[in-house]
């Protein structure tokens, strides 16, 4: 059930009205709505989700009753096994077949009929975080399964995040019946929903058919076409995933919940470290807190820190999908993060030896350096997206090779750019939109106050109606699943 379908909005409107009309029954209303939302995809997978959630709920309660480590290990094992079976079993079997030369799976085998439950990666990480947080006494175990089910299955963020922590969301769930929803909350929630819908419908879904030909046969691309395809996919996946997250947060506001923002204009990042503070923030913080730090973090020397960082990013890549392309994508980001840390250390030592310069000159040099760093890292990010999007490692390698081997030397790039002026201009415009979004979101309170102060209400109403009508008109076209639903 996609956010931009009539079926979802019908479910949402009914849930919203019942939620606000029958305050004492709020938890039950949300629990049923979440079941209907997930069950619309598969009632069997809803039963699986309910079962794994209930067992995790029981094990979390047992943690506080003694033998805590045993119950924690059982809880984590349950969730990892569930995820591994559905997501990685065929990946493991295919790799064993490749290594051994044997055939373990026939076309009519049981294994070929395994279907990945939507949202399984997200709810698995959320359940594991909850178990660990209960074990470390960061959060109290839920007092009823109803509350726990609403916490883990709240339908706006159920399929693709943000990944919620017990200490940040469970207290809100506990106060569900008394949560207020002010007029300001309602307006802000609607604003985020429309913002997300606009990015999904007007950008991501329009880019999807444009991106497809670039990755269909990368060996036939020119160097400029290869870069343009990477640019367009980079903006497609950002618009698609951030749209879902914005809408999820917006729907949360309409129920009185505060879900964390998941994106902060990642393509203005000057390094891999900054990128992961801006891209899929709840996942990167999860990887940091539940993998990187438990492995030792930066506490055991520089080399061990690099190993831990690379291991964490490899797991992040594998979490995204059971393909070597995702593993390589995670490894590349790990290597970029490691390289940046070494580079930043060397740069600080070098600058310590440079004579002082006037403050104005220093600011100018710093600004120019930052612009160059953003430009370079943006293109490094686009290279990594090739592995994320490609159908195979071989295809990704051909694609990347094409990006760096112009057929007639560097001079041919000018001719290629002229021939590809329309999609190249589109990529530049999309980056401009990205910068505008950054500025708008950074100053949205001031902009909103100015908008309401100087623009008459009838004019504001016409603008809102125009945007909504435009989105509705574009929704009538082909609908594309959110990319992260496959994870």
Intertermini distance: 16 Å
Number of strands: 0
Largest sheet properties: none
What portion of the residues fall into strands of 2 or more residues? under 5%
Q: Which class of secondary structure composition applies to the elements?
A: mainly alpha
Task: Briefly summarize what is shown.
The chain is mainly alpha-helical and 487 residues long. It contains 19 helices and no strands.
Description:
With 487 residues, the protein is mostly helical. The chain folds into two domains: 6-179, no CATH class; 184-486, no CATH class. The protein is 73% helix and 0% strand. It has helices at 6-21, 26-39, 43-63, 68-100, 120-135, 145-153, 166-174, 183-216, 223-254, 272-278, 281-292, 302-320, 324-352, 359-389, 393-403, 411-419, 421-442, 444-454, 457-475. Helix 3 (43-63) packs across helix 4 and helix 4 runs antiparallel to helix 5 (120-135).
Topology:
Layout: H1 6-21, H2 26-39, H3 43-63, H4 68-100, H5 120-135, H6 145-153, H7 166-174, H8 183-216, H9 223-254, H10 272-278, H11 281-292, H12 302-320, H13 324-352, H14 359-389, H15 393-403, H16 411-419, H17 421-442, H18 444-454, H19 457-475
Helix pairs in contact: 1-2, 2-6, 3-4, 3-5, 3-6, 4-5, 6-7, 8-9, 8-19, 9-14, 9-15, 9-17, 11-12, 12-13, 13-14, 14-15
């Amino acid at each position: 059930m996609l956010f931009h379908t009539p079926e979802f909005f019908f479910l949402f409107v009914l849930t919203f009205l019942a939620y606000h009309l029958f305050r004492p029954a709020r938890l039950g209303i949300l629990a049923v709505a979440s079941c209907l939302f997930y069950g619309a995809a598969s009632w069997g997978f809803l039963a699986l989700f309910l079962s794994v959630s209930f067992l995790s709920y029981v094990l979390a309660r047992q943690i506080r009753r003694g033998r805590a480590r045993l119950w924690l290990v059982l809880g984590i094992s349950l969730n990892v096994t569930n995820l591994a079976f559905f997501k990685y079993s065929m990946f493991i079997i295919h790799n064993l077949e490749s290594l051994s030369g044997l055939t373990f799976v026939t076309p009519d085998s049981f294994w070929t009929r395994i279907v990945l439950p939507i949202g399984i990666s997200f709810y698995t990480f959320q359940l594991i975080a909850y178990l660990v947080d209960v074990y470390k006494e960061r959060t109290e175990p839920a007092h009823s399964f109803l509350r726990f089910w609403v916490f883990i299955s709240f339908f706006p963020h159920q399929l693709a995040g943000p990944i919620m922590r017990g200490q940040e969301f469970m207290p809100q769930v506990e106060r569900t019946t008394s949560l207020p929803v002010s007029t300001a909350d309602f307006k802000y929630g609607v604003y985020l929903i429309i913002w997300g819908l606009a990015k999904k419908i007007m950008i991501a879904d329009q880019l999807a058919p444009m991106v497809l030909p670039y990755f269909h046969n990368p060996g036939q691309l020119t160097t400029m076409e290869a870069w343009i395809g990477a640019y367009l996919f980079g903006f497609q996946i950002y618009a698609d995933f951030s749209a879902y997250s914005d809408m999820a947060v917006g729907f949360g506001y309409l129920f009185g919940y505060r879900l964390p923002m998941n994106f902060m204009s990642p393509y203005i990042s000057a390094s891999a470290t900054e990128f992961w503070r801006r891209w899929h923030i709840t996942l990167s913080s999860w990887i940091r807190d539940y993998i990187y730090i438990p492995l030792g973090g930066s506490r055991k020397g520089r080399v061990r820190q690099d190993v831990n960082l690379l291991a964490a990013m490899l797991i992040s890549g594998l979490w995204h999908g059971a393909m070597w392309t995702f593993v390589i994508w995670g490894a590349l980001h790990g290597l970029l993060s490691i390289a940046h840390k070494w580079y930043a250390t060397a740069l600080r030592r070098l600058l310590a030896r440079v004579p002082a310069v006037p403050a104005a000159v220093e600011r100018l040099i710093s600004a120019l350096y930052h612009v160059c760093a953003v430009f370079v890292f943006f293109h490094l990010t686009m290279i990594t997206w090739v592995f994320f999007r490609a159908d195979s490692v071989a295809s990704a390698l051909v694609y990347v090779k094409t990006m760096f081997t112009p057929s007639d030397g560097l001079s041919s790039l000018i001719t290629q750019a002229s021939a590809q002026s329309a999609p190249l201009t589109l990529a530049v415009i999309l980056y401009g939109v990205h910068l505008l979004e950054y500025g708008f979101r950074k100053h949205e309170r001031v902009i909103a106050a100015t908008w309401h102060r100087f623009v008459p209400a009838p004019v504001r109403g016409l603008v809102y109606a125009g945007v909504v009508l435009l989105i509705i008109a574009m929704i009538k076209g082909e609908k594309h699943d959110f990319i992260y639903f496959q994870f």
